[in-house]
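Troubleshooting: if your tokenizer reports a length mismatch, compare your output against this known-good record of 179 residues.
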Amino acid sequence: MRIPHKKIYPECPFISRTVEVGGLSKGELIEKLKQSSIMMNEYGKRLFASDRFTTSETKYSLETVELTVGNLGFHEGATTNQIYKRASELGLDLCPVELGPHLRLAYHDQPEGEVGNPLQKQQAPSGSITIASEILTEEDDFPKGFYLRRINGVLWLRGYRADHLHVWNADDHFIFSKK
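Known-good structure output:
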């Protein structure tokens, strides 16, 4: 579902979800992803392998908000820092990195990206949803976080890289947590 971005959060349409997070180790999460036939790219695997990515032993509920960069008021796009700063001003928080695999396990009916919208290099893929999370390191070659995608009916949990100069498009979707 595409979310129009003419109005600014919270006066715009957005998708709210409550997700159970925590209670599983990284190994248990990987096993559950495999059991659910969820694929990961190399960047996603690198995130999991890193000591910087931790999981909570305790289960908790997280209320999330999915909206577009345009719904944050950036109709011409914005950098990650601009997006995160505006979201905070609007009462939204970054998500824990571990939300990515938990949300992927819970969200099976993600639509495919738009047909006829070819993948552009250095752009978020059509239909993808980026998890707004703390950047674990500023190293250029280390993944910055997870995004969800459905490709030819297959669910993916993918890691991505984007430097501080990368400009996200107004139609790119992000997930934040409510404060």
